[in-house]
Design a protein that fits this description.
Elements lengths: L12 H11 L3 H14 L4 H13 L3 H14 L4 H13 L3 H14 L5 H9 L3 H19 L6 H13 L3 H14 L4 H13 L3 H14 L10 H21 L5 E2 L1 H10 L8 E7 L4 H9 L4 E2 L10 E6 L2 E11 L2 E5 L8 E5 L3 E6 L2 E6 L2 H9 L11 H4 L8 H17 L3 H10 L2 H4 L2 H13 L1
Parallel strand pairs: 2-5
Antiparallel strand pairs: 1-2, 3-4, 4-5, 5-6, 6-7, 8-9
Length: 449
């Protein structure tokens, strides 16, 4: 396809007009312009491909499919058209058709990155999925050697490296991009996250503080409480059906368990769904079972000894914590490395509880577990942050706590929630709480919102 920035005389003015609509975010108008250009010149592969792309971005999938198929009549081996069809079929839930198109696009453009990454994302079998992921990241590493890459191109490489958990490469790409866009919030946050996963907690925390001090927040309207409760309930039911069918034992933990024990339902202001498995359950079994269900989005790669997995079901996040026994305690965490966030509880067994008209496993002494994790759990505390205040927290580096403090404070600023901001600040470490420059900045941002 043509570069939207190409202003040479050879570019059809009608195509340029379509590109202008596309850059303004009016994809449907862009699609109509590209369609007119194609009707005027049926030999224009650029017009028909951009028509398909614009209809796809406008979520007009039948029209996009028709455009790409029309392009293939002229050029049966057009990788862009096959890739576009793969994207459409993935959106409408036809995973086999999507995978076939991505395979075709990758075969036609073996040195491109996008077809391989998309193929990895829709491939269930582990070996071909990891092979496709490697082809995508090999391409990304080659691109990273190009000193003239734009910020947008570097951002694309960052997403590839993040998918593959290649944190050194994420750090390098972010550093290069920040030379051109030094106050980019997304780049600074990606760089901070890479340092966190590389266990450089002090640098990660410093970068997270810099986000607050230098970036402009994008104020967001939080998901309505009732909307989250509905989506989380649906997610829990889907988890139950999927893991039970695969004979994988799991249990409710954290805020999800608290909601059903104390409030008889999902806590409306919660952020995700928390489940646990014991260490005799393999990560592969959990992930592969969920990957069988197209509703779940799973990490493309993981290690056998990972103790935390992040999965999503639609827009609802799922935290899967692997629990390990240690004499008379059970512990879990974000990472088993020293200094990463961990929680430790008195050892517990399991019992069955009737929840959502289904049988879920829960700790056999729920009050004890909840006291270990939350302290005074019987009284609702909307601003309680277990990552900062949990009595169960142990072996957590001070700078890791600083990182999580800045993360939660920034989240409160984004949500324009003064009560949440103040309650979070109360729970941060003393050096964060007494940081006068930080407090001034937070007060300024909160007042302006």
């Amino acid at each position: 396809m043509l570069d939207a920035s190409d202003t040479s005389p050879s570019v059809d003015p009608l195509l340029k007009r379509g590109f202008n609509f596309h850059e303004a975010g009016n994809n449907l108008a862009a699609a109509k312009i590209f369609e007119i250009a194609y009707r005027r010149d049926p030999s224009s592969i650029a017009a028909i491909l951009n028509m398909g792309s614009s209809y796809y971005k406008a979520k007009h999938y039948p029209e996009a499919e028709e455009a790409y198929k029309e392009a293939l009549k002229t050029d049966p081996d057009n990788a862009t058209a096959h890739y576009g069809l793969g994207m459409i079929y993935e959106e409408i839930g036809d995973r086999p058709a999507s995978r076939a198109r991505f395979q075709k696009a990758a075969a036609l453009s073996p040195d491109a990155g996008k077809p391989w990454m998309s193929l990895a994302q829709v491939t269930h079998e582990e070996t071909p999925r990891l092979q496709a992921l490697k082809r995508a990241t090999d391409w990304a590493k080659r691109q990273l050697e190009n000193d003239a890459l734009s910020v947008e191109a570097l951002k694309e490489l960052i997403t590839y490296f993040q998918e593959a958990k290649m944190h050194d490469e994420v750090r390098r790409a972010c550093t290069l991009a920040l030379q051109h866009k030094p106050q980019s919030q997304s780049l600074m946050e990606a760089l901070a996250s890479s340092h966190l996963w590389l266990h450089d907690y002090e640098t990660a925390a410093g970068l997270k503080r810099s986000v607050i001090m230098t970036c402009e927040p994008t104020y967001t309207r939080p998901v309505k409480d009732e909307a989250f409760a509905k989506s989380a309930t649906k997610t829990l039911i889907e988890i139950h059906e999927t893991l039970t069918a695969a004979k994988i034992p799991f249990f409710l933990v954290g805020g999800t368990l608290l909601g059903f024990i104390r409030d008889n339902g999902v806590i409306p202001h919660d952020k995700d769904v928390d489940i646990g498995v014991m260490d005799d359950v393999s990560n592969k079994d959990v992930i592969e079972a969920m990957r069988n269900n197209i509703e779940f989005t799973c990490p493309l790669t993981y290690a056998d000894d990972d103790i935390y997995l992040n999965v999503s079901h639609g827009s609802t996040g799922i935290d899967v914590f692997r629990h390990e026994r240690d004499n008379d305690h059970i512990w879990c965490g974000i990472n088993r490395r020293a200094g990463a966030m961990k929680w430790r509880y008195r050892a517990f067994g399991f019992k069955q509880a009737e929840i959502l008209d289904r049988t879920f496993a829960v700790p056999d002494d729920c009050p004890q577990y909840l006291t270990d994790l939350f302290g005074a759990w019987e009284t609702p505390d909307v601003g309680y942050q277990s990552v900062l205040s949990s009595p169960a927290r142990f072996d957590t580096d001070h700078h890791f706590l600083r990182y999580m403090s800045y993360y939660r404070l920034w989240l409160a600023v984004h949500r324009k929630n003064t009560d949440l901001l103040n309650r979070t600040l109360e729970q941060t470490p003393e050096d964060v709480r007494n940081d006068s420059e930080l407090n001034e900045r937070l007060a300024f941002l909160n007042q302006r919102s």
